[in-house]
Design goal:
This protein is of the alpha/beta class and about 280 residues long. The protein folds into two domains: about 210 residues, Spore Coat Polysaccharide Biosynthesis Protein SpsA, Chain A (Alpha-Beta Complex), CATH 3.90.550.10; about 55 residues. It has eleven helices and nine strands. Strands 1, 2, 3, 4, 5, 6, 7, 8 and 9 form a nine-stranded mixed beta sheet that branches.
């Protein structure tokens, strides 16, 4: 078992559910086979009393929890940027405010870093669910092995953001999180890849993610397409993809993000773009 100290970084804001948030925090602390030395919670602006009360209770109950209360909502990019600059440990795991990590997630990821000192980022598979864990509606797998990751980045994100563990020094070397409409993570992975960081993944489900139709609505529209288009341009500009691949990717993203209704987009994400 690896005893390297590590942090968990999580951002929470006004729309997060207090009960789901408690479940998420417990899944990365008291229910883990290897528990974090720090859980850095960034409260992104004012939150309802019920959520604020839950956060304060968790801070009292779990010694590893540290809470930063932000006066105004800054957005996820700014929240994670601040968090990465202020977490205490070199190894950092990400977690969303309503997801559930499997009990041996950190034990497995720490072992992977121990086996590969050159590793910068790792994640694993995730499963989408609605309501109860048993009600799985989709799964997003990620490539296994360094070479497979290099090939995969030409198509889409090479890691699952909600399941990553990475080296703080490598994230900061690549410029840290930066604002990029709904795609702060994708922008970071591209910059880390261009900086020569090494990616790999575990062939294992690490996180269960709460889902719903609203999730797919947020992934549609012109703003989201423009955000995705900017990432594709970066891939092409830096020689990650060829012109034909760039045009193909743009066509796919325009079709899915702009032309499809939410219900069809949800089916595509669940059945075609997750596996």
């Amino acid at each position: 078992m690896n005893n390297n100290p590590f942090s968990v970084l999580i951002s929470v804001y006004k729309n997060d559910n207090p009960d789901d948030f408690r479940t998420a925090i417990e899944s990365v602390t008291i229910k883990q086979t290897v528990q974090p030395d720090e859980v850095f919670i960034y409260v992104d602006g004012p939150v309802p009393n019920a959520l604020a009360s839950t956060i304060k209770q968790l801070e009292m109950e779990i010694p590893a929890v540290y809470v930063h209360w932000e006066v105004e909502n800054k957005g996820l990019g700014k929240a994670l940027q601040y968090g990465m600059e202020h977490v205490r440990h070199e190894l950092v795991a990400r977690m969303d405010a309503d997801d559930i990590s499997v009990p041996d997630r950190f034990e497995c990821q720490l072992c992977q870093f121990e086996k590969d000192p050159e590793l910068s980022v790792t994640s694993g598979h995730i499963v989408d669910f609605i309501g109860a864990l048993e009600n799985a509606i989709g799964k997003r797998t990620v490539p296994i092995g360094g070479e497979a990751c290099v090939r995969y980045i030409k198509k889409r994100d090479v890691v699952n953001h909600v399941a990553v563990m990475f080296r703080k020094s490598e994230v900061l070397r690549a410029g840290n999180y930066q604002d990029w409409y709904f795609n702060e993570d994708s922008y970071l992975w591209l910059r880390m890849y261009l900086a020569g960081c090494k990616f790999d993944n575990l062939d294992k489900v690490l996180v269960y993610t709460r889902s719903g139709e609203g999730q797919y609505a947020r992934r549609g529209g012109w703003k989201y397409f423009k955000s995705e288009a900017g990432l594709q341009k970066l891939r092409y500009k830096h020689g990650i993809i060829s012109l034909p691949r760039y045009l193909f990717n743009m066509t796919v993203h325009f079709t899915v993000k702009v032309l499809m209704p939410n219900s069809v987009r949800g089916w595509v994400f669940q059945k075609l773009l997750r596996e």
